[in-house]
Design goal:
Helices cover 44% and strands 19% of the residues. By secondary structure, it is α+β, with helices and mostly antiparallel strands. It is globular. The chain binds zinc ion.
Length: 1040
Amino acid sequence: MAPEEKQKNCTPATPMMIEEEAALRNGSRGLPPGPWAEAAGPRPRTTEQHIAVHKRLVLGFAVSILALLAVTMIAVLLSVRFEECGATAAGSPRTGGNGSQSGAAQQPPGEGQRPDRPEEEEGAQVGEAAEVKQEEEEEEEEWQRRREPPPWARHRLPLHLRPLHYNLMLSAFMENFTFSGEVNVQLEVRNATRYIVLHAHRMHIEVVRVAEDKLAGGVQVARSFLYPQTQVFVVVLNRSLEVERSYNLKIIYNGFIENELLGFFRSSYVLYGERRFLGVTQFSPTHARKAFPCFDEPIYKATFKISIKHQATYLSLSNMPVETSVFEEDGWVTDHFSQTPLMSTYYLAWAVCNFTYRETVTKSGVVVRLYARPDAIRRGSGDYALNITRRLIEFYEDYFKVPYSLPKLDLLAVPKHPYAAMENWGLSVFVEQRILLDPNISSISYLLDVTMVIVHELCHQWFGDLVTPVWWEDVWLKEGFAHYFEFIGTDYLYPGWNMEKQRFLTDVLHEVMLLDGLTSSHPVSQEVQQATDIDRVFDWIAYKKGAALIRMLANFMGHSVFQKGLQDYLTIHKYGNAARNDLWNTLSKALKRVGKSVNIQEVMDQWTLQMGYPVITILGNETTDNDIVISQEHFVYDSDTKPKNPTPGDSSYLWQIPLTIAVGNASHISSEAIIWVSNKSEQHRIPALEEASWLLGNINQTGYFRVNYDTRNWRLLINQLTMNHEVISVSNRAGLIDDAFSLARAGYLPQNIPLEIIRYLSEEKDFLPWHAASRALYPLDKLLDRSESYNIFNEYILRQVASMYLKLGWPTNNLNKSLVQASYQHEELRREVIMLACSFGNKHCHQQAATLISDWISSNRNRIPLNVRDIVYCTGVSLMDEDVWEFIWMKFHSTTTVSEKKILLEALTCSDDRNLLNRLLNLSLNSEVVLDQDAVDVIIHVARNPHGRDLAWKFFREKWKILNARYGEALFMNSKLISGVTEFLNTEEELRELKNFIKSYEEGAAASFSRAVETVEANVRWQRLYKEELFQWLRKSVTH
Ligand SMILES: [Zn+2]
């Protein structure tokens, strides 16, 4: 899966942001359908219509009851006889053990029975006959006597059975958003058992039958029931299933095509003024069980044969191509799809829609189609994605030396989706904004976002779909690889952009080290059991730390050996599952073949099973010239906090670190040497270390750690940057900046060192070091922005930015859109420098912004260059009078472009006027004015404004009950809100307020609150210990 939203680099995002935003919609399950869900156009599916449909169905049902009276009588007689035979009736009235075959899967609505709402069903279960309850209790007592929980009460499925093949027949009723299904699962018995336990959630089960080897007679079902606590369906049999035999489990069921974005859900769009609906699936990680009863854990790979019946006005799609379509006279059609290879349930998929497509074919004959709403296809908005997909399949086939496994790949662009995209095998689903692109009006950064999401999902066709992690604790194996390959694949498409060598650092490495430097972090491999916890493993640690560790591994192995290792890994485990040790073993073997011996498992276990990362300190030894002392310790922002959960058996937090070191002088840098550091402190000999030469560790910042030096070495490095910065690589220049700011923030380094380093920026023409500096300055700025002496800091930063700002100037709206390296890097650099200049108060920058806004107001034509609009809006609102705020407010209401609406709303939070900020905060809770998901952004952005921080903090506490009711179920949304409002609090008083607040309202978001407390404690500690030191140095420096 790819996260939903990439953050613009204007305001460095808090580490959790992308994933939280990703899960916002995912988590909105508890909310009423949000206004954003179906905002545009009429809403034909009103409650009244629903009731009308219901009435019709009830009527139809009544008639069919009369007609079937005789049959029912016979069935009742049979069932009485059945009970007399000693078998109890099935647990739920609707889950009859031997119910008559209703053929529900084949019946269109009106003839068939409309499914009951799942809630009603669960309600009915609660009110179930005491008799069944008693039986269950007896059974549970029996298990208690055995001192183990019953098989259905465990978080993982019992290992007795294995699904080999599923035959799934679905009927989708788009007029009333229901579906019915019949699934036949061929089961292999590993251990004899009386219980069939498989996942099923929020569905109504009508019939369940178990037959031996299809031909032999049925196995009698004693009872069956849904067990919502663990989301399973339990079939209790009268006798045990025997080992090494295979059985057929048949279940007929029905459910809703939900209006929330999980399982089999619906979505809509407006075409020619008419609202159209589509049904699509999102099963990852644990939602296939909402669409069909199945063994919904990734290890249970099976083959699937799917058929979908729908009205002929729609088309249906699934992982495999359609084999045959059978048209019926009543206007219905059944598509029978080819059988899939062995696969897990979470990347199975289907869709029912009336989209159109364009297609292309790869060299190896894979048919690639892009399906989207017809108007988008006609405009050619999918052509870019289609074109790069073809090229990327060819790239991956060549890189992995494993052909793409299916005959086709469909890319489906849907209006709503919980993530940016989902990598379903052969049918990957993308939210429209992440795949459709009009080259004439899209900025380069938009194009980059689209590209990276597609590269990510295509990587998953191999890493995830073909070879699947055994269990969710290693979700980072697939997400880390896909995230890492976003950069490798984009480099293939745009060789000049140097994504893996450069942008990876700021966007992945620096970003995640911020989060992973807290003791409230967690290891990249995380134990999870409960379905409700599984969503949480898809966080930035899994994506970004996973990617950073993989990059470190690739670099110390050497890229070609690493690539060979991956080829072996995929070949060995294709169509199967693999755990991290399988990968380590294959990679170790690949290294051995080239004569190197590294126990990769031993090395990587320390990085994946321990949270956090080390800081290496390199000290020159004063007695012997060529000797240096290298030591390591766990880097934490607040050294007063001790890790709360040290790894069992090893609380020492040591890592085996592949440290690369180079020696340099004024004009030259030596080639790097790799030193494995595994002890707390080690002595090493560095040849050719001369008086005036400096040491540089972690060459090109390929390692996942920070490096610190003695003051003498820092001085030498600063001199080098000032005299001739190009001796040191672009990535190391960015790395030095990020390390220095982080080390100073955590108290490892004097506060002046990072500020001295950035002095060389006036000569820096590369984007990356500027970007690293800008991101590092942002949190420092927030620590200082309410101090009396703030101006002195402000002035210092302005001095560093001034000359480059003058040199680069402002962009015009007639950008040359050619996608050459120079233009991309240059535009990004210019944007970064303008942002720094305007936010720190460069007069020319302010004037320019004010002029552009005035021009817009007077001419009513927005001529502000696209790339800097957010900066100009925000600067205008903060500098100019209330009329400008009102103008932006009006534009916010009138614009229909999603991206424009977002930056207009954010600009409103930039005001210095506390009345306006309060007004905005209060309006943000009105769903008619501000969309639910945007309200959180409003509150967070007001908190980032020094004039509004206390207002937002107060508002957050006062409205917590409302906010928690609104976002409580959307766990990620809550944690985004909590960290966003609290991360820049930095006084003792605020810390006290936070702790008191948590005492009264902790429920639900404990992890976010403990992260918030740790962050604020570190802020307060920094203020207490280092703020004055920083200002003293600044005073001296600015007055000289
Ligand atoms: Zn992914």
